[in-house]
Amino acid sequence: MKILFQIFILMLFTFLGELIASVLPFNFPGSLIGLLLLFISLLFGLIKPSHLKEVSSFLQKYMAFLFVPLCVGLMRYFELIKLHWIEIILVLVVSTLITLITTGLIAQRSIRKWVH
Is the pLDDT of residue 18 over 90? Predict the structure, then answer.
């Protein structure tokens, strides 16, 4: 019963995010809005991490399995991917490097701030 309540909490934030996205005058992913609302609720203590512990552990454990439908869906676009694979690889490498460098710089800055 506890895990059902935890799933309800996650679904509630997902629904709120989709609801907000539907009334915005521009396109923005509702799932991202829901995640931001959940993050803010956790940050301000409206929801405690222990309230989501079991369901988050379950979802982390089976995360790879949850990506299978996405990967299978990509096969529908195999011809398009085959035509542009060089550009796709280039974008993936550049965006990964930018993410790694940015994360490293932020981590270094944070460490310096907390150490001094």
Answer: yes
